[in-house]
Amino acid sequence: MLRPTYPPTDTYPVGMTPAATATPAASTTPATGPALRITPAAVATGGAAVLVLGAVLVSLLLAVAVTAGSLAVLAVVLRSLRDGGGRHRH
Asked: Where is there biased composition of kind Low complexity (predicted)?
């Protein structure tokens, strides 16, 4: 139903011919390998960086957990001191 209609391929104005395409000159530079080479040393360095980053993040998480635990114990002790008054002394 709605099919596009394309003009004929030779619809250049009279007196105008399509320009010839110029072929590029051959390159004299030698072909080089990929810009980024993955060597075993690079893989080992990346792996070491991942391990160090993981250790740092785990130690930070452990520090937060220890701090939260100590604050919870402190809250219980302070609550006990506040609510207990001096009733349990003999």
From this structure: 17-32
Mean pLDDT score across all residues of the chain: 84
Tokens 């690079």 identify what position? 42
Q: Does 19 fall in a domain?
A: no
What is the rounded distance in angstroms from the CA atom of residue 74 to the CA atom of residue 84?
Answer: 15
Mean pLDDT in residue range 68-85: 93
DSSP 25-53: PPP-SPP---SS---HHHHHHHHHHHHHH
Residue 49 covered by a domain: no
Give the residue numbers spanning the domain of 80. Answer: 58-84
